[in-house]
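Notebook, p. 212. Picked up where the previous page left off. The plan for this session was modest: take the two constructs that came back from the sequencing core last week, fold each one, and keep the raw output in the notebook itself so nobody has to go hunting through shared drives later. Recording the first one now, exactly as returned: residue sequence, then the structure token string.
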Amino acid sequence: MYYLSLGTPVSTPTLPQTSTPLSVIICAHNEAHQLEKYLPLVLKQNHPAFEVIVVNDRSTDNTAAILRSLQQQFKQLKTIAVTANEKKLAGKKELLAKALHTAINETIVVTDADCFPATHNWLSTLSQHVSIEKKIVLGYSPFTTESTNSLLNKLIRFEATQTAWQYFAKAVKGKAYMGVGRNMLFLKHDYLHWLKNAEHKTAGGDDDLFVNAFGNKKNIAVCLHQDSFVYTKPKNTYLSWLQQKTRHTQASYHYLLNDKLILFGFALAQFGLYAASALLTIFNPHLWMIAIGIVAIFSLIQMMISRNIYNTLRQQDIVLWIPLLQPLYVFSISLIFLLSLIKRSDTWN
């Protein structure tokens, strides 16, 4: 038994194999190298009935040739080519709609071209959580540990783990507010209904806004079995990561009001702790030990309550780094928030 938050148990039971037919959808824009490297791992899944649909979005690299070559090896691979003249909307939503109309199965799994499943049992493990009550399954998509295991790599993985911890915990309690399109399962009918009826005010949000607006949040399951993980490489510069996170953050402005207030309040509380400690030191230098003590106690508490979930999410190597990563994280999310207000993005890749 693992814990996402105090009093919120999440188990990872061994369930019987399922034969639910699946359609896996990947949208790709100039991702030839990633598709050549990672798509075979998706196509070699140990699942009895699945197809893979790759939407080639206006690619100018070798994507089309790579896909043709892979189609000769894997009969379950389908492709859809979208030209610049055909695409009317920014982002992935229009691409997903095209793929969904092509998909032969009702149960859909989405991932990205630069992602790879941890095992050949990814699809089977994820689909085990589908039931009459559970219409969406949120999977976990961690970032890889690079060979250098730099401070930036640790920071990116820390931020991703904190974010996952928050939205998984809320989902388990029947209050899901987001999911990540690198590893998510849903029903075609539900997604097409949302696409048709939602106001699409941002290029992104094809994953989290769908979950946020789904209505009955208790029909959402969480899958944290390690066989269901889907990995992706993190950005290799701080600036590129900030740009990526800024783009993702803009979708959160369209969450339900209650979800926005909770997330903003959580971030504000963390910022306030460090800001108050800094101001205490500046205006009364004699109290610097108290300020440091407050931060140290906060870090120690976070390390203690984080251990189980970090073990579950296979990020236990960064627990001891929390005293350093936490203030960097708070600074970064504050900067990302400001950037998201200043610069709007209409791209998804």
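Okay, moving on. Second construct, recorded in the same format:
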Amino acid sequence: MPAKIFSSAILGLDAVPIEVEVDLTRGLHCFNIVGLPDKAVEESKERVSAAIKNSEYDAPNKTNRRIIVNLAPANIKKEGSYYDLPIAVGFLIASEQIKTDTSNKIFVGELALDGSLRKVNGILPTVIMAKKQGFKTVFVPSDNAKEASIIEGVSIIPLKNLKELMLHLNGSDEIPSHPISKIEDYICEEKIICDFAYIKGQESAKRALEIAAAGAHNILMSGPPGSGKTLLAKAFASVLPQMTFDEILEVTKIYSIAGRLGPNNPLITVRPFRSPHHTASGISLIGGGAYPKPGEVSLSHRGVLFLDEFSEFQRNVLENLRQPLEDGTVTVSRAKETVTFPARFTLAAATNPCPCGNYNDHQKECYCSPSIVSKYQRKISGPLMDRIDIHIEVPRIKYEKLTSEQMAESSLEIRKRVQRARNLQQKRYASENIQTNSEMNVRQMQKYCKIDHETDSMLRAAANQMQLSGRSVHKILKLARTIADLAASEDIKRDFIAEALQYRPKDNF
């Protein structure tokens, strides 16, 4: 009878169970792996053979048997070194070197030639799948144990080597399960590198960033070189609210699959802040590859994607942001596979108004011709600009204010207001499957963004005068809802709509 061992495969951000069947039959020796394996899986034959031999068991190449390993279902592509451990265990059971029940166990791990186990990616989705499918135990490399033990209800067995596992399965030397990892143990006080208190002036920009953080609204800052746009964006990270448990799991899953979790940071507890260079390609931004992997928009999920020198990005690269900005997801389609990744990020962008940067600057003369300015500004398409909630100008700072010793409001104080606003939103949307004001759809806006007749008349007049699109009107209402939350107001007042209207783009950025 063939031995059957359970493992997993990663499809997008989720894991699916994989049956590893190992059968030994009489005949000339061969070792074949079938079931749509990639090159890394096919090479596991050599790793498994050496690991079994160096663990003092009879290796496959010492048996005059035909060894067939089937990875089922066969229509799912199997990648990486996940299957070294289950193949080794399956062979040892099929060759009757050990006897054990593996019906409710999952095995995942890469084998070294000496039989020790190496870390693999995507452990967290595997454990989540194991819990949903009713598996009781998951065997993982010891370096993955902290990450795996976040999920309660599944016993995690950390493994250092293959021989240790065999002794455990035989019952001669039991390995204790890893204690449950509490998220609170990994949440530490974030060190603020760039504090708003040390940024002189720019009060209007700071206010706009506070609103953006409170409601997860996209923001574009425009101004001359040296006005502090990049500094403000870096300080923006210091006012972001704490992540919830669900957000921590969402983001950690992405980083687990992308292989960006270290042994000492099994959890992502701080909101991501990603800042790709303006020469980044569309695939690096959106994700992709023959078998799609997450890109920058997914790595910044529930955090911030900061695009400095926004107008210097290639236009076709920026156009890729349309779908994730609108839907909070990105679908990557390739010939072999189509995968949807989450991409609910806050876009923070900074740009100069023209190539020399001095257009509309009252202190320095702009040397760009009107045609050059127009061409530079058209690098960002109208539909993409319409998806940005807040447009703010960041003027040059005067010397007197720059050298002032008076401290501005600290990031910690601003974060407290942001956190209070987010708490209101979490309570409001507890039954809506959204978390922030920026995620509201039309039905939810009708329910939570009601305005009185006087305020409605003002908004209607502004929409006609400014020729606002339907999307722009919705974004104004969402912004006003966030401004009301910051003011701890249940109603959206006229002043809140007036402030939200100020953040729509002018004729030039």
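Notes on construct two before I forget. The two ends are 71 Å apart (CA to CA).
Flagging for discussion at group meeting.
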